[in-house]
Amino acid sequence: xxxxxxxxxxxxxxxxxxxxxxxxxxxxxxxxxxxxxxxxxxxxxxxxxxxxxxxxxxxxxxxxxxxxxxxxxxxxxxxxxxxxxxxxxxxxxxxxxxxxxxxxxxxxxxxxxxxxxxxxxxxxxxxxxxxxxxxxxxxxxxxxxxxxxxxxxxxxxxxxxxxxxxxxxxxxxxxxxxxxxxxxxxxxxxxxxxxxxxxxxxxxxxxxxxxxxxxxxxxxxxxxxxxxxxxxxxx
Length: 235
Hints:
By secondary structure, the chain is of the alpha/beta class. The protein has helices at residues 14-26, 40-45, 63-73, 88-97, 109-125, 163-174, 182-190, 195-212, and strands spanning 5-10, 29-34, 51-55, 79-83, 101-104, 135-138, 141-144, 149-152, 157-160, 179-181, 218-223, 227-232.
């Protein structure tokens, strides 16, 4: 039997936290629950986890700050934010940090279970794609999808991009000079096409444009109501 999924959870509401911990354990997850944000990073460093569930509104230190610290130690660990905050700026901030999902309180616990399993399933697939094309040419750049490295052989520079940036750039390369449907990208990478994931993808498109801006022959076009198109022109 495979080992149980290890979840790192930070939630200061002791009543809610206790109920959620019990519910997750009933579904065969192992939970490390921290109810004090100040103790979160020290506790995270002492364990090995598959996914994090972080409340945003915590006393002393907010969930965003905790997430940034966690991502510095493990850039690939998935993070789900739980929050009562619904301002667009807060949602976008969560996704900029690298959130995989952003769930508004109150929520259906079954939905949380589904989202956890969907995120972990997507991540597990990343190691089983060695038979696919992993090296792409994008204008003057070389993109190594497997290692998530975008290289400029002329300037002899390279940058390592995030897992979601790599997934999105790979899809754009596969659809080069054709429209990548927005819904296809959202379902394939985020597992959902709701408002928040749509805004998240827009953030990642902006990041990719910045990475590629040194080559004027490359464009990532927004096709209104349809999706995005990666185009490269011969100078």
